[in-house]
Amino acid sequence: MNYTTEKSGDTIKVELNGRFTFGDHSSFRKLIEEIRSQEAETQILDLSGVEFIDSAGLGMLLLARDEGEKSRATVILKGAQGQVKRMLEVARFDTLFKLED
Amino acid sequence: MPATGEAHPRPLVAVAEPLDQTRAAQILGGRHIFGDGAGAHAELFFGRSPEDFEHRNRYQLCLIPSETGREWLGALVRLNCNYFVECYDGFDLGDLGPLRTAKRGANWDLLVCMSTQSAYQLPMARKFVTALRHRGIIHDTIAPTVEMAVQEAFANSMIHGNLEMNTTGHLSMDRFNELGEETARRLASLIHGGRAIMLTAKKRRNGNVEISIHDQGSGFVPPDETPVPTLPGAESTFGRGLPLIRSLCHDVTFDRGGRTIRLTFAPDASAALPLNTNFVAGLEAAEQGDLRNPRDATILIADDTMISREIIASYLRSDGFTNLVFAKDGEDALEQAHKHSPDLIILDIIMPKMDGYEVCKALRTNPLFAEIPIIAQTALEENEGRTRIFEDGATDLILKPLNKAEMIARTRIHLENRLLVKQLQAYQERTQSELEMARDMQEMLIPKAEQYRGTGLEYGMTISASFQMSSELGGDMWGLAPIDDDRLGVYIVDFAGHGLGAALNTFRLHSLIWSDDRHDDDPGAYLESLNRHLKGLLPVGQYATMLYGVINRTAETFRYASAACTSPVLGNIKTGETTFLDGSGVPLGVIRDARYETREMPFGIDNFLLLYSDALIETVLDDGAFLEGERLLKMVQAIISETGGMTDLASHLADQFMDRAPVKLHDDFTVVSLQPNPSARTTKQHQE
User: Fold this and answer.
1) What number does CATH give the domain A2-100?
2) Does B247 touch chain A (CB under 8 A)?
C-alpha cells in the first residue's frame, strides 16, 4: 500500500493505493504519524485506489478511527469499491465509520 | 489412467538463476523433496525467467532463489510446473517433506513453499489464486472469495503460526507499533523468519477444491466454532480472520496439531470448467469406444425378472440390436456397466439389492457414465416416482407393460442422439488439435526469450516481453530487426479479428517483413511499402494495425511510424514520468496509397518504451474497468518506482494484468518493453 496526503482547510484527505494487507505495518504507521502532525477536523481516507484489503487492513482502519477520536476528528471512508466495499460490508463498518461513495 | 511404472524416472527440474548446479544439487539431494530419492539424478534446466523454459516440457519441480521479489511468483502462472520451492538459507521442510516422488501424478495440483521471510513481503494469496484460475482449478467467479479466504488463512499461519505473534487484547497505536517492530525482528531471525510456509491446492473428484496452508509454528489451536462472524469491536484487530474464513469457505479443518489449515471450496455450479490444456499435458483422456452405427451399440438391460429381460431383448433383436448384455439386480447393473461400458442402459426401477434410483445416482457420479442414456422402465404410475427417477439422472422413462414400437423408437432416438454428440465431439477434438498445431506455428513467429534478451544485450538494452495467445487463434506478432551497431528495429502487429484467418494473415505479413531487407528505411516509408504489398494480398475487409520503430542508441532517438497501433508508452525511470505517444495512422491493408508519418522522440539512457496489443487495454478486469489511459500509466509508474527501473517491465506488467484479467482472453496479448541498460553499456557507473 502507498498513499498521498492533501490538506485543505480543516480537512485532510489521504488517498490510499494498492493492496492493503497485514504486511503494511510500516507504511500505515507513517501514515498515522503524518495525519497526527496536521490538525484536521475531518480526515477522509479515500479507498478508491485500494484494490484489496484483508482483516488486518480493516484493523488498521479501526486504529485510524481510534486515533481520529483522540483528536476529536471525524474519520470518513470514501470510495471503497469491489472487494474492499464487500469487506467493509461484511465487517459492518457502516456502524463504525461514516462511509461515502 | 494409472501411472506407468518406470524404473528410475528422472524428474525434470526447472532451476531459476542465479541458483546454480551446486545449490540445486544440495537441495535436491536426500529425500526431503523427492521421497524416492529421484532428486539426486534430476535433469536440471536453467533459466533467467519463466519464458526461458519450454512450455511443452512438464517440470516436476521449480526451484526459485531467495529474494527474487515478485519475478518468480509470475512463474506460478507462466511455467508448466506445479511444485515451486524456494531455496533459502536454513531450508528445512521437517515434517512437511517429502513433497513428492518422481512418478507421474503429484499429490497436489499446485504447491508453493517459501521461507516466512520471503513470503511475508509477497502477495502470495493473490498469486496463488491467479495461478489456480489459470490452471482451471477454480473458476473466475469464485476467485475473489477464495482469495479473501486464502489471504486470511495465510496471514494467520504466518503471524500466529510461524512468527508466533500474540496479537490478542486491545490494540492501541502503541501496541500496534510494538507488534510491528517485533514482527520485523522475528522476520529477520532464522528461528522464525527461516520457517517454511507452504500453500497447496487439490481439486477433488467431486469438484471441491481444497487449499491448505502449512506452517512450522507451534500449532494454533482454534477456539470452538464461532457461530457468526464477530463484528469488529474493541477486541483484537489481527486474528479476526478465522470467522471471516469460515464465512467464505464450504468447510475449514485443522491438521498437524493446528499447523495446517485446510479450506474447502465448493465449485461454482453455474460455471462448467474445462481444465486448462496447457497444464494437463501429462494427463490422458479416457479412451472412448468408437460408435458409428446405432445397431452396433452395446445395450445393458437391467431387470430382476428373467422374462422381462427376454421380452426386451427380443424386441431389440427384432430391430437389429444384437450387442445385448444383462444384469439381474442393481448391484449387477453397476458391475455390468463397468465391465461392458454400454452405450445405453434400460433400467428397471424396482429391483433387489439396489433399486433403479440408486443405480442411476451411482452411474451419474462416475464421469464415465455421466452422459450415457438411461431409459428407466417402471410400472409406477404415480408422479412421485416418475419425477424422482429423472432427478436421479434417468434420460427417459418407459411404462410397463412395454410397447414394442415405443421401446424400439426410444432406444433408437437416444442412441442416435448419443452418436451425433460423439461425432460432434470427435470433430471438435480434431479441429482442436489442428488449431493447436497452428498455434505452435504462430508462436514460432515470436522471438524466444533468449533471442530477444541476447539481441537486447548487443544493443546495451534490457528487452522483456510477454505473449499469451487467446483461447482461439489470434493475430498478434512482434519482433526485432537489428539494422547496424546503433540501430535496432522493432515491430508489433495485430491483425483484426482472430481465428484461422487472422493467423494466416500473420504468416503472410511475417514473410513480407522478412522477405526484403529494408528495415533501415525511414519507418514511415517502410510502412508505406509494406502496406502496398499487403493491400495486394489481403481480401477487402481484412487489415492489421502495426507499429514499426527504430531505436538509435547513439543518436538517442526513437523514430517510429504507426498504422493505428495502440499508443506506445514512453517513460523515464529517473523522473517517473510516463506519456502516451501518438499511435494514429491508417491501418495496413485498407487503402493502397496510405501515407505514414515518421515521428521522432528522444530516447536516452533513462528512457523506456512499452509496446502492447489492445488486449492489454481492452480486457475487462475484475473490477469491471479497463486498464487504459491514466490507469495504465499509473501501473507502469508503480512498477518503476517499486523496482527502481531495474526490471523486466513487460513481465511485471503482464503478471499484474493476469492477476486481474479473466483466464480466457478474447484476443492475443502482447507486451514488449525496451530500455537501455546502463550496466551493459557504460563502463563507469555508480549505482547505489
Assistant:
1) 3.30.750.24
2) yes
